[in-house]
Amino acid sequence: MQVVIITQANVGRVSRWRGERSGTHTYLQVMLDGEWCQVVVTRSDPACLPPRSLRLKAGEYVWHPPRQR
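The structure corresponding to this sequence follows.
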């Protein structure tokens, strides 16, 4: 599985998100260009990531960042 950082440059290519549980941890993954990728969560661009409550949720969902002004 490919590992990616979600930024303003590539967030538009994300079609779905999911939380994948492994033991006590939930890992954030994205469907990017038709392939599931593991997301490295950084503090550099938090507006590109779903809220923490969704990131910790197991299962698939659709989320889009708020529009930039």
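Strands lie at 2-4, 14-22, 25-32, 35-39, 59-61.
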